[in-house]
Design a protein that fits this description.
Layout: E1 6-8, E2 11-13, E3 18-19, E4 24-31, E5 34-42, E6 62-69, H1 70-76, E7 88-95, E8 100-102, E9 105-107, E10 112-114
Parallel strand pairs: 1-8, 2-9
Antiparallel strand pairs: 2-3, 4-5, 4-6, 6-7, 9-10
Length: 118
């Protein structure tokens, strides 16, 4: 059942102090012990995806997971890390209301944080 909400994200590269351009982002719907792929996106120059991950037509309540491909992003930038730590950062969350959900990621090669934004 489609709702009136939407799901957006953005990524900030805290190592370089700028938006994370060109990071691959996957969205999955979580169903029990497995997931269903919904969409793939890449961040733009502002660290955002050009369109919502879920718009009003696709929006639905449930459990979702955004997978941020941070290892690939830092490798592409040429960041030399002797022992890589973060590869794919999964953020699993529940959409329970027909509202705007914004799930940003602040990331370096060794740490990340997120929150429910607006």
């Amino acid at each position: 059942m489609a709702g009136s909400g939407r799901l957006t994200t953005h990524v900030l590269d805290t190592m370089h102090g700028k938006p994370a351009r060109g990071m691959r982002i996957e969205l999955h719907y979580v169903h029990g012990d497995h997931t269903h792929h919904v969409t793939d996106s890449y961040t733009n120059a502002d660290g955002r995806v050009d369109n919502p991950l879920l718009d009003e037509q696709q929006f639905d309540k449930g459990e979702f997971e955004i997978r941020f491909h941070v290892g690939q992003y830092f490798e592409r930038l040429g960041v030399e890390i002797k022992t890589p730590f973060l590869n794919v950062v999964p953020i699993r969350f529940t959409i329970s209301e027909d509202k705007h959900y914004h799930v940003p990621l602040l990331v370096s090669p060794f740490a990340y944080s997120t929150y429910r934004g607006s």
